[in-house]
Amino acid sequence: MEARMNYLVVVDMQNDFINGVLGTEEAKHIVVDVLKKIQSFEGTIIYTRDTHTKDYLKTREGKNLPVPHCIKGSHGWELAPVIETLRKSDTLTFDKPSFGSMELGHFLEQENLKHPIQSIEFVGLCTDICVISNAIIAKAAAPEAEIIINSSCCAGTTPNGHETALQAMNNCQITIR
């Protein structure tokens, strides 16, 4: 397998989702495993950041989840420090204003047209919101690539939400590891 045909997408490993306003114990527990996965991955690594503006509470998401989080430029928006230390200045990072990143999807689609992608692996937060959204977008962008969810490197908003999302992705022919 050529390393450049494999991608790792690190989804929203941001302070607000780990130990901030939307943090969970499950999110805290995956940080070390995500760190190890990034360090050992052979291929292209991509990061996403949930990114909101100060008017978040006026958005549809803000009305449904009235907890300001990941406000661009804030400490909560930043990647966890141990994850940020691994992100190189030229590493692709997609700031996404919604659960899924269309920009990530377009990028993967273009890369797949140049050279067929063999695999796209996902780690990060939250399994039942942003991980599932981006995995489905990746499946559409590169339908012949193996889309992989590294379940031990993901956490949901709740343990039940995590499991439900894994089952839904499995039903969509996404590999769960």
Task: Tell me about this structure.
There is one protein chain. The chain has 177 residues and is α/β, with parallel strands linked by helices. The protein contains seven helices and six strands; from the N terminus they run E-H-H-E-H-H-E-H-E-H-E-H-E. Helix content is 40%, strand content 21%. The protein has a six-stranded parallel beta sheet. Helix 5 (102-114) packs parallel to helix 6 and helix 6 (127-141) runs parallel beside helix 7. The longest helix is centred in the N-terminal third of the chain and has 16 residues, at 25-40. The mean pLDDT is 96.
List the helices and strands and how they pair.
Layout: E1 6-11, H1 15-18, H2 25-40, E2 44-50, H3 60-64, H4 81-84, E3 92-96, H5 102-114, E4 119-125, H6 127-141, E5 146-155, H7 159-171, E6 175-176
Parallel strand pairs: 1-2, 1-4, 2-3, 4-5, 5-6
What's the short story on this structure?
With 177 residues, the chain is of the alpha/beta class. The chain is 40% helix and 21% strand.
Output the keywords.
6 strands, single chain, 177 residues, 40% helix, alpha/beta, six-stranded parallel β-sheet
Q: Residue ranges: pLDDT <50 for 5 or more in a row?
A: none
Q: What share of the residues lie within helices?
A: 25-40%
SS field, number of helical segments: 7
First CA to last CA: what distance? Answer: 19 Å
Task: Tell me how many strands there are.
Answer: 6
> What is the overall pLDDT average?
96
Strand content: 15-25%
CA-based shape: globular
Biggest sheet, in brief?
6 strands, parallel
- Given the helix and strand composition, which structural class is it? alpha/beta
Q: State the order of secondary-structure elements, H for helix, E for strand.
A: EHHEHHEHEHEHE
Numbering strands along the chain, what is their spatial order in the largest sheet? 3-2-1-4-5-6
Oligomer: single chain
The radius of gyration computed from the alpha-carbon positions, rounded to a whole number of angstroms, is 15 Å
